[in-house]
Amino acid sequence: MRSRTEKKRDAWWTVLLVDPVATPLVRWTAMWTRITPNQITWAALLLGLGAAACFVQGEWQWLVIGAVVYHVSFIFDCMDGKLARLTGKGSEFGGWLDYIFDRIRVLICAVALMGGQYEQTGNVAFVWLAVAVVFLDALRYLDALQIFKVRQAMRTKLQAAANEAAAVTSEGTTPAQPTAAQRAEEEDEASDEALTGEPVVPALGKVTQESFLRRFTRYSRIRDFLISHRIRTHLISGIEFQMAVFIIAPLTNAIMGVTIGAGIGLLLFELAIIYKLMLSTRDFERVMARYRRTIDGAGSNPAVPSQTDASAPMSTSA
């Protein structure tokens, strides 16, 4: 059941606080109802709007209710994908709908939460905080999508170069194959969830991680430990950022402090991912240059003629 519904790797908030509730609910839903994944997606949006209606009141008791409703909304948001995987009723339109509704929910809840605090305090900083929340959420997902595409492109080019190098040399060597943990990290480190419907190109191992792993020797142990517990290495992603802003901040009645702290944490993790991507692109260029030298060298040193040429009839003189 869990293998069919839960992702192999997910945000720690989802693994620890959502899956224990969502997975049994999905099983019950699949067995006893005719509810579709898209209907759950709509329910998640409506609950998100309900949370926003609570947030806009501004008073702490309403903030607490809004935080609880938002978490229920997020549980529903996780259930639609699980139900789709379990029943096979997922669709491309459903994936688009889920993604768009998530962004709408963040936008409306950010405006409601910060607008309610502005009405309560008259502090214009809350207006700017709403803009910052929407901006950081959009930045995170746009950056994730672009990083995903860049890594896909690098893997595709490396595979093509490896195949060409193997075809023109007798060794037939290919890049070092990755461990299970490396494959796991490469497949989803850029995204909070499946950002596109494109298949993941198989990872090519350490060739685009050498520089990063050399500089941060303890990273592999931390990564392997987290992945063994289904937790992604991106510990402050878009999901954790949303939960901090719309659940932890209202519950603690520390809207500004928690939101600013979560925003800084998100930016630091984004910078770390961008830094790792920069090192990966350097490793990528180095490995591609090596393949090009191999291919060019084989082209400029054609094989010595053998049996066919040696067995050709020799000319004779009269």
Automatic annotation (TrEMBL):
Domain of life: Bacteria
Alphabetized GO MF terms: transferase activity
Transmembrane segments: 40-56, 124-142, 231-249, 255-278
Enzyme class, spelled out: transferase
InterPro entries cross-referenced by the UniProt entry: CDP-OH_P_trans, CDP-OH_PTrfase_TM_dom, CDP_ALCOHOL_P_TRANSF_CS
Keyword Metal-binding: no
Region (Disordered): 169-194, 299-318
Bias (Polar residues): 303-318
EC number in record: 2.7.8.-
Biased composition (Low complexity): 169-182
Keywords: Membrane, Transferase, Transmembrane, Transmembrane helix
Family statement drawn from the similarity comment of this UniProt entry: Belongs to the CDP-alcohol phosphatidyltransferase class-I family.
Protein name: CDP-alcohol phosphatidyltransferase family protein
Organism, scientific name: Streptomyces althioticus subsp. attaecolombicae
